[in-house]
Each structure stands twice: as structure tokens, then as C-alpha cells.
């Protein structure tokens, strides 16, 4: 149990376009989902926390107008990178919270902006 | 000072060795301590969690938490080449505020 999927796993887009990444908890309901960003050989950086049916809470320094998060249901959260630029190229990972200490991670989405 | 410090390695050991991975932290409010394993280009996988101080064992893995020293450890016995991955420590005081270490890259050589 506790499977989280992400789609797409890899996306290449042109500078200035928008990209949507989906995160789904497949076998449990997640009231809270998290979005992380990870640069090569670095740890995960929390970008935002989203609760179903309410606005996401963004970490300091994360542009909420650039990284749009929607948590439409207990099993689906989406991250949209708007007007992407090469510096947005990164590995984006979502996680879904099941119990107080448990976060289950998706497989990640590699975004390359050309 | 970072909230969570973890030596990024890399750490290379022969197959069968005992591996010791460690993290230190500065926030005494942390109550939940986790270890994640991350293979290259994959999402982290929860390996172990511990609440407050103490030890926890699961197969070849043992997690230890020493809150008085603000120090946590993960031991891997009889290490296997399939254990080669990056190991991330993580800790939180609630589910909404998890902080990760930088991750230690481990290679187990056959």
C-alpha cells in the first residue's frame, strides 16, 4: 500500500511555456500533499504544502504565481510551472501524507526547459 | 548552521560490511525521525521511522535516535550491492514540516 504516482516522469518544454505535473495517491486518501524540488546531488527542498480544498502554503522564496498548486481531491494534486525558464529545470517530487509522520513520495518528474 | 546536517559522502564499502549513516540536528522540537532511500532518478522510499528517542530494528536495518545529543543513525548489516543508493535522513515535529538532510551516497561493491 501507500503508492504515489506522478505524471509525466520526464518532460521537455520550451522557455515561456507552462507545464503541469500530476501527483496521485493511488491506494489511500491524502489530505495533505507536498511538493519538493531537488537539484542534482542535493537534498529535497520543500516548495509548498497543499491541503485538499484550500490554498497551498508556499515556503519562503517560492513564487506562488509561478508554481501554481491545485489540490482538487483527496487523491490528486497538480503543480503547474508557468512561463518556464531554463533555471526551472529540476527534479520535482511530490509526496502524500498518510499518517502524522508518514510521507510517501512519488517517483519524481524531471523537467528540462530549453 | 543548517537544521539538519548529513555528510554527503560518497561512502563506499565492500559487500557484507556494516554501514553506519548519521545525521545531526539543531531543532530540539523534532519528534519524528525518518530514513529514506533514494535510487538515482527516483523518488525517496521510506525505510524506517522512529518517534522520539530509542532504537528500531527492521531486518538488516537499525535506526537509532539520541535526542539528548541530537543525533540519529541508520545501520545496515550485511550490506548488499542493491543497498547502493542515497540515504536521506528526515525529521519533523509534525507532518507538515519535514526537514531533510543532504543525503549520503552509498556504494556497496560486490
Task: Give short descriptive properties of this protein.
heterodimer; A: 114 residues; mainly beta; seven-stranded mixed β-sheet; four-stranded antiparallel β-sheet; 11 strands; B: 110 residues; six-stranded mixed β-sheet
Describe this structure in words.
Chain A is an all-beta fold and 114 residues long. Chain A has strands at 4-7, 10-13, 19-25, 32-38, 44-51, 57-58, 67-73, 76-81, 90-97, 103-105, 109-113. In chain A, strands 2, 4, 5, 6, 9, 10 and 11 form a 7-stranded mixed beta sheet that branches. In chain A, strands 1-3-8-7 form a 4-stranded antiparallel beta sheet, with no helix packed on it. In chain A, a hairpin with a 5-residue loop joins strand 5 (44-51) and strand 6. Chain A is globular, with a radius of gyration of 13 Å. The mean pLDDT of chain A is 91. In chain B, 35% of the residues are buried. Chain B has 110 residues and is mainly β. In chain B, strands 2, 4, 5, 9, 10 and 11 form a 6-stranded mixed beta sheet that branches. Chain B has a 5-stranded antiparallel beta sheet with strand order 1-3-8-7-6, with no helix packed on it. Helices cover 0% and strands 55% of the residues of chain B. Chain A binds chain B through residues 4, 6, 32, 34, 41-44, 46, 49, 91, 93, 95, 97, 99-108, 110, and chain B through 6, 8, 32, 34, 36, 41-46, 49, 51, 88, 92, 94-96, 98, 100-103, 105.
Amino acid at each position: 500500500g501507500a503508492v504515489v504516482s506522478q505524471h509525466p516522469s520526464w518532460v521537455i518544454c520550451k522557455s515561456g511555456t507552462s507545464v503541469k505535473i500530476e501527483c496521485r495517491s493511488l491506494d489511500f486518501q491524502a489530505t495533505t500533499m507536498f511538493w519538493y524540488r531537488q537539484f542534482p546531488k542535493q537534498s529535497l527542498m520543500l516548495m509548498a504544502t497543499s491541503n485538499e480544498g484550500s490554498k497551498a502554503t508556499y515556503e519562503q522564496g517560492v513564487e506562488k504565481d509561478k508554481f501554481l498548486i491545485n489540490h482538487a481531491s483527496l487523491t490528486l494534486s497538480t503543480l503547474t510551472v508557468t512561463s518556464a525558464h531554463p533555471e526551472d529545470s529540476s527534479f520535482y517530487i511530490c509526496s502524500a501524507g498518510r499518517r502524522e509522520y508518514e510521507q510517501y513520495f512519488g517517483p519524481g518528474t524531471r523537467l528540462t526547459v530549453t | 548552521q543548517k537544521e539538519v546536517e548529513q555528510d554527503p559522502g560518497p561512502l563506499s564499502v565492500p559487500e557484507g560490511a556494516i554501514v553506519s549513516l548519521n545525521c545531526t540536528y539543531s531543532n530540539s522540537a523534532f519528534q519524528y525521525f525518518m530514513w529514506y532511500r533514494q535510487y538515482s532518478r527516483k523518488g525517496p522510499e521510506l525505510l524506517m521511522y522512529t518517534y522520539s528517542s530509542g532504537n528500531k530494528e527492521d531486518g538488516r536495518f537499525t535506526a537509532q535516535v539520541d535526542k539528548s545529543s541530537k543525533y540519529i543513525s541508520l545501520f545496515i548489516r550485511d550490506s548488499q550491492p542493491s543497498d547502493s543508493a542515497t540515504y536521506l535522513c528526515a525529521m519533523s515535529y509534525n507532518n507538515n514540516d519535514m526537514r531533510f538532510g543532504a543525503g549520503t551516497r552509498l556504494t556497496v561493491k560486490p
